[in-house]
Amino acid sequence: MRKNTSVIFLTFVIALGSFASAQNTEARVKSVYARPEIQSALKRFDQRRPEILELWRKLALTSAPSGHEDERAAIVMQELRALGYNDVYRDTAGNVVSAPLRDNTKSVVFVAHLDTVVQPGVKVTVAEGKNEKGHTTWTGPGVGDDTSGVLTLLEVAEALHASQYHPSTPLVFVFSVNEEGGSTSEGAGAFSKRTRHVWLRLSVWMEVRSTRWARSPITA
Fold first, then answer.
1. Which of 9, 30, 83, 137 is deepest in the core (most CB within 10 A)?
2. Strand, helix or coil for residue 102
3. Which of 25-29, 130-134, 176-180, 194-198 bottoms out in mean pLDDT, i.e. has the lowest?
């Protein structure tokens, strides 16, 4: 989990660097990465390991079939509000959006989908085991796809909040609905259509997904 979250966080740093010209992008990225707030944020992933695993399990045990994401969406909104995202809202499609996109301002948007491959009414469980290296693993519907992506975005938001790093470029987290049922990420597609008036001013749109099947064991 720490590795995945760190990769996303570093991608965020690179996204900030992308606003610079081609000649000085590398210098810009290095400059942002070297900032004390960024280094402090990176350390949060190790410092918060117990809390991260607790939230991961809580989300994984919250059933979220496509079209039935309300309970998981409520948890995400609660977490975001605790981090100071007072303008977090659900759009008409049901997506959770950390903050409205601003007109005339470039933005960096990260997306992870809330729904998982599970039938409505099925009780979700998480089985704990060990892999060949002796590491603890969790297996269950949606432990990876895309609960790990949702958790990653929440932890990036937490790390930024704790480190008191306030990027000049707005960072927006979108937790979309009906990705599994919509096959073409229906929720994210609806979000993009409704924000078409600012779409061309987006600098980065990145979707965070698990690289494993929903029922694959995930090293905790």
1. 9
2. coil
3. 194-198
